[in-house]
Amino acid sequence: MARNYQRMHIWELRELAREQHPDHDPEATRVFVTRILDMEAERRTLYGDEHLQGYGGSPIAPGWAPGSTDIAREPLAMLYDRGIYTHEQHETARRWVAAARLPSRQLLAALIQARKLHGNGNQYGTGKEWIKSYDQIAGNLGHYAQLLGMPPGSPPAHTFDCIDEEKRTKGSVRVRRAHQVMAFRNGQAIKDAAKSAKAALIMLAKR
Q: Whole-prediction pTM value?
């Protein structure tokens, strides 16, 4: 019977992604990497601390409504518990992605692609900015990097200290000049970097 990896618990899927697991399936590895990037993009763009630590901004104890009443305490308790569970899942996903130590350029590209795949808003809310084309995102990369939690002006939105070729009378010589260069010249460069990132994560997930 075929397994539905899309509906499987993420950490059960993690075990099936390992090559040494007796029921290993390469498709499980691919789906795991896709979902883990999706969760990290979701954590960075949809959930703030106020969402991940529980439902709403009030310090609601499990099972109790805010204020002096206990009306609807069970639904609120369920939402509170779900918020804690969501936080734990996303925090574990964050640690797994961080442990992969992807180059920052590849990580940004993979997160852009993961977030953009849900740009119509079915999963992430309206997300109108993410409906933009990859070329448009590449042209305004600093803004999108900030949406994904990266400080303004920081790599990989730009790359510095690049190598140039300088012509001289007795031939060419390699000189190092510090200057600002966009990390992605166009949308295809984002897609290519995201593909490389996913390949590296798939190799890691197989271990």
A: 0.71
